[in-house]
Known about the structure:
About 30% of the residues lie in helices and about 30% in strands.
Amino acid sequence: MKKPVIVYPDKRLKSVSKEVTVFDAALHQLLDDMYDTMMESNGIGLAAIQIAVSKRVLILCIPDEEGEQTHDNLLEVINPKLSNQQGTTVYQEGCLSVPNFYEDVERYEKLTLNYQDRHGNEKSLEADGLLSVAVQHEIDHLDGKLFIEKLSYIRRKKFDKEYKKLLKAKKKEAL
Ligand code: Y12
Ligand code: CO
């Protein structure tokens, strides 16, 4: 079932999520709810904290060459650990918790991701390109960090101004 996505400046987005120790039906339900939420919100990635669940769980569904997001491409990642980070790349990032704002962010180009699947099995993959960028963006959520914290001083000021305006307009709209 689709869940509400919490948005900046909600303080819960700053919290460090907890390791998963139990791989049970409740975890599977969380993963299924995250999938529904991400797909119905047109996202390519989502961390559990974005639906207010403080667990080290994230999902990714990177579009294929035709731009299609298929269930076969769904990656469910629990207790992720990064290693072998190499190179740098710049990608225009967006986040369901920071609506209407997209900015270039520098990240590692390539990395190794170790994680557990929904049954607790240990997995490993090599990532580059958009997958690598999205993995880093989502792991940052588990550590209470948002992509806007990686912007230069000037770009961050621009964001603060634009976002303030947006929140004001949304408040007015709700009246
Ligand atoms: C590059 C690109 C994305 C990531 C992390 C995952 N981020 C997302 O999946 C963001 C999705 C997103 C979707 C939105 O909805 C539509 O476009 C219809 C959206 O919309 C608004 O802001 C209104 C914003 C973000 C990492 C690296
Ligand atoms: Co995000």
